[in-house]
Amino acid sequence: MQGKAAAQTHRTIEMRTSMDWDVIDVKPVAPLALKVEFADGTVGKVQFEASHLTGVFAALKDPSIFQQAFIDGGAVAWPGNLDLAPDAMYQAIKSHGEWVLR
Predict the structure, then answer these.
(1) Residue 13: strand, helix, or coil
(2) Is residue 24 left, alpha or beta, with left meaning phi > 0 and alpha meaning psi from -120 to 50?
(3) pTM for the full model?
(4) Pairing mode of beta strands 70-72, 75-78
(5) Among positive and negative, which fits the CA dihedral 62, 65, 67, 72?
(6) Which whole number is the average pLDDT over 79-102?
(7) Per DSSP, which regions of the chain are E strands?
(8) 70 within 8 A of 82, measured Cβ to Cβ
(9) CA 20 to 30 Å from 31, out of 9, 49, 88, 102?
(10) In a domain, 10, yes or no
(11) Are 46 and 101 spatial neighbours (Cβ–Cβ below 8 Å)?
(12) Rounded average pLDDT over 16-44
């Protein structure tokens, strides 16, 4: 029985690593804008409006912080435990080619 549970866990991890909305590449391309690529090949833009940079996202007003975008577990992230929901980003980009955060 233990082998079956281990196999089940392995399948779950395997499924998670192959989600279409996993971000596989991120590049800052302009002030407050990112180019992202997803596991299924979808590419698009994430654009922050200044009005969205409040609360935890206020740190991204600093261009040197914004430029530090990286991928963490398939999500776009920044130092200080900031990240974006990759599934919501994917849906917006798949539908409109960009995700504008207002």
Answers:
(1) helix
(2) alpha
(3) 0.80
(4) antiparallel
(5) negative
(6) 96
(7) 23-30, 33-38, 43-48, 70-72, 75-78, 82-83, 98-101
(8) no
(9) 88
(10) no
(11) yes
(12) 92
At residue 18, the pLDDT reads 56
Amino acid residing at 67 = Q
Domain carrying residue 67? 20-101
Domain count, the chain: 1
Q: What angle do CA 17, 19, 25 make, to 5 degrees?
A: 80
Secondary structure (3-state) at 40:
coil
Answer yes or no: is 3 within a domain. Answer: no
Q: Does 8 or 83 have the greater pLDDT score?
A: 83
CATH of the domain at 56: 3.30.2020.10
Give how far Cα 55 sits from Cα of 58, 59, 78, 81, Å. 6, 8, 14, 13
Is 37 part of any domain?
Answer: yes
Does the residue 56 lie in any domain? yes
